[in-house]
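Good day; I would like, with your permission, to put a structural problem before you. A protein sequence and the structure tokens that stand for its backbone fold form the material at issue. I would ask you to consider whether the tokens describe a fold that such a sequence might reasonably adopt. I set the record out below, with my sincere thanks for your time.
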Amino acid sequence: MILEVTDSNFEQTVLKSDKPVLLDFWAEWCGPCRQITPIVEELSVDYKDRAVMGKVDVDSSPGIAGKYGIRNIPTILFLKNGQVVDRQVGAVPKSILAKKIEGML
């Protein structure tokens, strides 16, 4: 399951998570973002009990995007213990994202 991450639930959902977090920054109008969505959905099933998958709409939650200096979307941040450990900008194959998740487990 992919969690909708907002300014109001960010701290609890992401920073205080006891699991690694994949955080997908996207917008409704972004074509490449729509390409990434089904991949993130698949990863949320593959890593159901081992990692948290979240999506941040940069238009409705600009505070989070600003905090992490998100300039291009899609951008995916990989966080562990509340800290960014990796970043991926642009649409990429599932295997690349899975490898980054595996590296956090």
